[in-house]
Amino acid sequence: TKTFTAGAAIGKHILFKLSSGKLAVAAPGEEIIGTLEDAAFAGLDIRSVRLQSAPGTILCVASRAFRACAVVYRRAAGQIDDISTTSAIRVGIALEAATAANDIVEVMPD
What angle do CA 25, 28, 31 make, to 5 degrees? Predict the structure, then answer.
């Protein structure tokens, strides 16, 4: 893990990028740095993040329901789902099902 300064409020387990050296929610087609381990409640909060290069699984927020073992992709608001599109960037494989939007699921990253 590594600590960064948040550029705004960002929820726990959201995929993020760096923008001007601060944490920001990653859009679907943007490169990610990792996931937040704790929510940032405002800009300038210092938060620990799980880097994408770290070994092991990550926790992510689902944008909709999907089955366990589904290949998951980046979506708006730093979330994931199992719908593949031509611009979708693969995150990994869901190790558990999401039963509804905003469920937290364990993912084996690519």
Answer: 70
Residue whose C-alpha is closest to residue 48's, from 10, 93, 92, 95: 10
pLDDT tens, position by position, 86-101? 888 999 999 999 999 9
Written as one string, the DSSP assignment of 10-42 is B-TT-EEEEETTEEEEPPTTSPP-EEESS-B-S
> Is this model's pTM higher than 0.85 or not?
yes
3-state SS class at 78? helix
pLDDT tens digits, one per residue of 55-74 = 999 999 999 999 999 999 99
Alpha-carbon Rg for the chain, nearest whole angstrom, is: 13
HSE value, Cβ hemisphere, 13 Å, CA-based, for 48: 4
The amino acid at 57: T
